[in-house]
Amino acid sequence: MPVSASDVDRPLYGRGPSPGLRFTLYALVSIVMMYYDRHGQIVHRIRYALQAMAYPVQMAISSPAQAYRALTAGLQTSRALRAENAELRAELRAAQLATMRQAALEQENAQLRALRGSLPPLIHHWQLAQIIDVETDPLRQRLVIDRGARAGVLVNQAVVDSHGILGQVERVGPFSAEVILVTDPEGAIPVQVLRNGLRTIAVGSGTDGEIVLPYLASNADIKSGDLLVTSGLGGVFPAGFPVGRVMGVRRDSSQLPAQVRAQPVADIERDREVALVQFSADNPAAPAPHPAIAPPPAPKAKPKPKAPVDAVDG
Amino acid sequence: MASSAHPRLMILGTALAGLVLTLLPLPHWLAVAWPTFLVLVVLYWSTMMPRAGGMTLGFAAGLALDAFQGSVLGEHALALALVTYLAIRLHLLVRAKPLFEQSLFVFAALMAYEFLLWVIDGWSGHALSTPLRWLPTVTGGLLWPLVAGILGRFHQAR
After folding, report:
1. Facing residues of A69 across strands?
2. Are A108 and A143 in contact, with CB atoms under 8 Å apart?
3. Which of these, A143, A206, A219, B94, has the minimum number of CB atoms within 10 Å of its CB?
4. pLDDT tens-place string over residues A252-300
């Protein structure tokens, strides 16, 4: 190594505070920040600023993959597009048939509950967000999305795709937000078995495409193929949204809990866009109010449902 | 002084490259073994140029990792401050050694780093005890000669 006399190559000792003192200082600052991470206003502001600084880097890392996808989408043949269009039309028709009686049912439900008018819609406001292609921690199941506090995203907001619950918002930066998926080992979501109303909690397994139900007795009435929907407890998700489908049940002995694995219905691997949903509190299916969540502010923009099939040029 | 401004710029540039490498979206099997390249870059500069790439660099890089990986703010900062402290204390010993022996030091430093993260994860209620979390320390040690070789070119081309 060439020896040079520049400032940075000079021996370390004898100038400024000693390494030991500096380490103690930095360690103290770190520990204080960790201690106040959840509740401190200042640490919260530091993180918010750091997230704002992180956003351009995240977008830059994510952009080659997005550009590639945009390019391949642009090069799709009109035949492929027509086929996709027909498929989407068929899907839409099926969905319309399935929801055709919803208005009547809601009205009937309202009357049964002896309310005067019809119920307010359950979904108060929703918006789409793109997933930013960036690694967070491969052993945890997290996502970064490109909508943040500036777009009205709130902590604990529900994140869904077109099939079911994907997760909930964990942290909000100004332009981006971090989503904790249902498959994350720290993710826990109160569910019930649709077939018989059995309530339990689904916990992420930490691996792709698997959630587990660790709190079921070995004689619990659950079997492969059962659909798990949100139970409406816990204050984040309303009741009745699909979460997963039971893949396998193992009962070893009568003392041990049953080992139940389920697959999330949301298509986590292939999603590029997710929906952030805010529920209105006065619908009976809405999640029970959570003390940690402030009442939602009035929406700035009117929710405008997008036409599911965009016009396609042949 | 131009000669003192230049290395700092070079360190910032290579640290940014290390950060981008760390954050690349990868298939799951590769991402699990992928070392935190930013830590390797910081380790390199703390051993080779302890005054320019010292604890301040380690602390700042740790804060960046905290922001990008969504961990408790200060977690990676503390772990990287410790790693840079060790590197600065031992830099004269380590940089005289051949590359493969340096790899062992790097492996030990990464173990200390990961151990601290593991303890803080547990304390802050984000426990993650799968043995897979120790895999990047091994790959980090194995990749050290490559990283040191590449960074050495920047270092001597000055």
Report:
1. none
2. no
3. A219
4. 877 788 889 999 998 887 778 899 988 877 666 667 655 444 444 444 4
E strands in A55-198: 123-132, 142-145, 158-160, 165-172, 177-181, 188-193
A30 versus A76: the higher-pLDDT residue is: A30
Which residues span the domain enclosing B70? 13-20+33-156
Checking if the pLDDT of A308 tops 90, the result is no
Chain A residue closest in CA terms to B16: A57
Break chain A into its structural domains and give their ranges: 124-288
Q: Tell me if B67 and A54 make a contact (CB, 8 A cut-off).
A: yes
Residues of A in contact with B63 (CB under 8 A): 50
Averaged confidence pLDDT in chain B? 88
pTM score over 0.80? no
Q: Is A7 on the interface with B (CB under 8 A)?
A: yes
Closest CA to B126 of B59, B69, B62, B68: B69
Among B68, B70, B95, beta carbon nearest to A170: B70
A57 touches chain B (CB under 8 A): yes
The confidence score (pLDDT) of residue A293 equals 42
Query: Regarding predicted confidence, which is higher, A209 or A16?
Result: A209
Question: Residue B51 CB: number of other CB atoms within 10 A?
Answer: 19
Largest Cα separation within chain B, whole Å, is: 49
**A269 touching B (Cβ < 8 Å):** no
pLDDT bracket for residue A149 (50, 70, 90): very high
Q: Which residues on chain A are in Cβ contact (under 8 Å) with B126?
A: 186
- A34/B24 CB distance under 8 A: no
Sort out which chain B residues have CB atoms less than 8 A from A134's CB and list them: 23, 25, 68
Predicted confidence at residue A103, as pLDDT, reads 77
Per residue in A175-186, pLDDT tens?
999 999 999 988
Determine the average pLDDT of the residues in B53-75: 89
- CA distance linking residue A107 with residue A102, whole number of Å: 8
CA distances from A44 to A121, A187, B121 (A): 34, 22, 19
| Superfamily of the domain at A124-288 | Rod shape-determining protein MreC, domain 1 (2.40.10.340)
In a domain, B2, yes or no: no
Number of domains comprising chain B: 1
Q: Please report residues of A whose CB lies closer than 8 A to that of B1.
A: 6-7
- A59 Cβ under 8 Å from any chain B Cβ: no
B92 conformational bin, left if phi > 0, alpha if psi -120 to 50, beta if neither? alpha
Give residue A5's pLDDT. Answer: 44
β-bridge pairing A273-279 and A242-250: unpaired
